[in-house]
Design brief:
Blueprint: H1 10-21, E1 28-32, H2 39-51, H3 65-71, E2 78-81, H4 97-107, H5 112-119, H6 130-141, E3 150-155, H7 162-173, E4 179-185, H8 193-196, E5 200-203, H9 209-218, H10 223-233, H11 237-270, H12 274-287, H13 293-313, H14 325-334, H15 343-358, H16 363-377
Parallel strand pairs: 1-4, 1-5, 2-3, 3-4
Helix pairs in contact: 1-2, 2-3, 6-7, 9-10, 10-11, 11-12, 11-13, 11-16, 12-16, 13-14, 13-15, 15-16
Bound molecules: zinc ion (ZN).
The site of zinc ion (ZN) has 9 residues, from helix 3.
Length: 380
């Protein structure tokens, strides 16, 4: 990764480049800052810069053999340590390095939750185990492959268990030659004080709203949404990404929900059988394999929320009504169709559809059945 691939953080970049150019690179540094500000990315770009064969005053060259290997996270002198959950798949980072590399290269920015998702683990806490310290010692005692530094990047360093942390401490006290430790942490206060006292702190501040807005726009979010999201993301690009994805999904979901309700009503009330064909098309679209089970479930949950909110809308209690602006506009006309006479039945149908999707039922049948139920149930 090059510095130019990282959003904002110009001051930190300048500071890192300067230390490299002046040959004053502390052997242990801690990149600390909140979620999604680019800590790990800065550590990786710094490692690449320090080893690049033709670095400029602003960045690594991106073309020399070393750069190419660093970009792929494949250089023999670049090592990573990160939390894992011991399993049949393995008990040290080596066993999970391919997964980690794949995720990092695909996502560029990622959180511990992304890592859990990659590993397909739930309700477990990943740890940097004691055994890992042996691996760290082993890797750093290998002869360097290139002329540059051996770099050990420890992501989520606060997740080191105490034995591992103490062994690392020994290394930090007597570091092997030409070896650098870059610790990366969202919660540096959880690191041992003895470790904290031996690392140079690199504070990575929250990103500016404009920087997040710009990054979202480049990723395809429209300008107004990007600015709104950046404002609530509080300097975290990852949090902004999450919100942008949800918002885009919800906009599409809202359109699909409105279509379902409108056409069901047209068939049920107006006896407009053209709309029945539209419902058929709609159910095929929803059942399409491109949609995927997870998204189908998310849509059905979205509709359940909308039905609940429309029911509540009738009582005019803004304090318990959680809707976005465009959702409220729709409710102003639609809410009268959701009342005590049908709300429970509609919710049951949606719940049933969601369960059937979860159980791998035939999505075409499930969604078309749902349409037929809505035709009967949506009335004043
Ligand atoms: Zn290079």
């Amino acid at each position: 990764m090059r510095f130019r691939d990282i959003i904002g953080q110009e001051d930190v970049k300048r500071q890192l480049i300067q230390s490299a150019r002046e040959g004053r690179v502390p052997h242990a540094q801690l990149f600390a800052g909140r979620l999604g500000v680019g800590k790990l990315q800065l550590a990786m770009a710094y490692a690449q810069y320090l080893n690049c064969q033709h670095p400029t005053a602003e960045d690594s060259c991106g073309e020399c053999p070393t750069c190419l290997q660093f970009e792929k996270m494949q250089h023999p002198d670049l090592h990573f340590t990160f939390p894992i959950v011991k399993s049949d798949a393995g008990d040290t980072c080596n066993d999970f390095m391919d997964d980690f590399r794949k995720m990092a290269l695909e996502k560029r920015y990622f959180s511990i939750d992304d890592w859990y998702e990659t590993l397909e683990i739930e309700n477990k806490q990943a740890v940097i185990y004691e055994k890992e310290s042996g691996e760290i010692v082993r890797k750093l005692s290998l002869k360097a492959y290139g002329e540059g530094y051996k770099v050990m990047i420890i992501w989520q360093a606060e997740k080191m268990n105490i034995t591992c942390a103490n062994k690392l401490l020994k290394l930090l006290e007597e570091p092997p030659a030409k070896t650098l430790f870059f610790l990366v942490s969202e919660m540096p206060e959880r690191l041992l004080p003895t470790i904290l006292s031996r690392v140079q702190l690199i504070r990575v501040p929250p990103l500016l709203d404009e920087q997040i807005t710009q990054a979202l726009i480049e990723r395809g979010t429209d300008e107004q949404n990007a600015a709104d999201i950046a404002h609530i993301a509080q300097g975290s690009y990852l949090r902004a990404l999450q919100m942008a994805d949800e918002k885009e999904d919800n906009q599409v979901f809202m359109e699909d929900f409105v279509s379902l309700m409108r056409w069901a009503w047209m068939v049920g009330h107006k006896k407009d059988y053209e709309s029945l064909l539209k419902l058929r098309q709609w159910s095929l679209k929803m059942a399409d394999a491109k949609m995927g089970r997870e998204k189908q479930k998310a849509f059905l949950q979205f509709v359940q929320r909308q039905i609940r909110e429309n029911y509540i809308y009738n009582y005019q209690l803004p304090q318990v009504n959680y809707q976005m602006r465009e959702e409220k506009t729709f409710s102003s006309k639609f809410a009268v169709f959701i009342h005590s006479g049908n709300v429970e039945k509609i919710m049951n149908e949606l719940d049933k559809a969601e369960r059937q999707i979860t159980q791998n039922g035939n999505a075409k049948i499930i969604f078309f059945d749902l349409c037929l139920q809505m035709i009967v149930l949506i009335k004043k």
